[in-house]
Amino acid sequence: MNKVAVTELGYVGFGVKDLEAWKYLITEIFGMEWSASGDAVDLRLDYWHRRITLHPGDEEDMRYAGFRVAGPEEFRLMQQQLKDLGVSFEVGSAVDAEARSVLEVLRLKDPAGVPLEIFHGPRVDRHQPFRPGRGMHGRFVTGAEGLGHIVIRDHADSYRFYTQVLGMHGSVEMITELVGRSFTTTFVDCNRRDHTVAFCPLPIEKNVHHLMVEVDNIDDVGLAYDLVQKAKIPITATFGRHSNDEMISFYIESPSGFFLEYGCGGSAAATQSEYNVRDAWGHDYLRL
Fold first, then answer.
1. Which residues, including other chains, have CB under 8 Å from residue 86's CB and lie 6 or more apart?
2. What residue spans of 37-155 are helical by DSSP H?
3. Taking the C-alpha atoms of 65, 71, 76 and 80 in order, what is their torsion angle to the nearest 10 degrees?
4. CA-CA distances (angstroms) from residue 250 to 29, 42, 50, 99, 155?
5. How confident is the model over 27-56, as a mean pLDDT?
6. What is the pLDDT of residue 179?
7. Is 8-122's fold the same as 143-282's?
């Protein structure tokens, strides 16, 4: 049997307490489209019906990250692959799939306990143009590269799981000196985007350290940075450029405590492994 691999990070869902604070950040600063759907709120970045879903509740964390496979055949093969590798999973019902706006979905957890979903057939609303929450100089970078990337809680078996079970490719490591200690962050990719998942080397209580979304115009990043400072939203890493994916970005603390990265100019995934020891410039980390 040929190995089946996920193709992108398609969507994520977060539990949040303060929807109003999120609404201002997401629409007026980041430029996403806000769409209330029952109790939850869907955020659009492109033609997809949803890319990010905010679920009101007391648990402020990433509730799930959805990884795509190409189609129904790959969805069946992935189930067999999970069985062969001894990975527990549950196939969702038609109601579960409808709730995610996909054709089929299954649920599982990675070795660190991070909740994941594998799906195929997202709903794409080409009849409904994306309406940014604020005027934008450009657009979000999604397409075949997916939603963006997540940095999640690490475990000794996380790298093996994402490469051997989900079929991702490890390419880059970042070795950094922070607060007098050396940390190594490992990155894995599944498409052209430099990395789709990275494993946080620091102990974190939440499933996710940060979510990154990318735009194609640096003026949108600069505008968002100005708006963040004006609104006094906590900046956790200043404007700078990463060495690994060449992303020009900044980080802020979301209203739910985990971080968000907003950037542009990301490079393609490396085809061979390499490592970096620091960022190209900027990115003074005010909080980790």
1. none
2. 72-84, 94-100
3. -60
4. 13, 24, 24, 32, 26
5. 95
6. 63
7. yes
Which whole number is the average pLDDT over 226-251? 96
Cα separation values, 99 from 42, 69, 122, 135, Å: 11, 18, 11, 30
Exposed, middle or buried, 11 (CB in 10 Å: 0-12/13-18/19+)? buried
More confident residue, 66 or 184: 66
The CATH architecture assigned to 8-122 reads Roll (3.10)
For residue 163, give the DSSP letter: I
Cβ neighbours around 39 below 10 Å, total: 9
Task: Encode pLDDT of 92-129 as tens digits.
Answer: 999 999 999 999 999 999 999 999 999 999 999 999 99
Give burial (CB, 10 Å; 0-12/13-18/19+) of 55: middle
Give the SS3 label for residue 76.
Answer: helix
Give, as one character, the DSSP assignment of residue 48: B
Structure tokens at 149: 């990337």
Contact 166, 6 (CB under 8 A): yes
Q: How far apart are CA 137 and CA 141, in angstroms?
A: 13
Beta strands in the chain (DSSP E): 8-16, 33-37, 40-44, 52-56, 61-68, 90-91, 102-109, 115-122, 149-153, 169-178, 181-189, 197-200, 208-215, 235-241, 248-253, 259-264, 274-276, 281-282
CATH code for the structural domain at 143-282:
3.10.180.10
Residue ranges per structural domain of the chain? 8-122, 143-282
Average pLDDT, the chain: 95
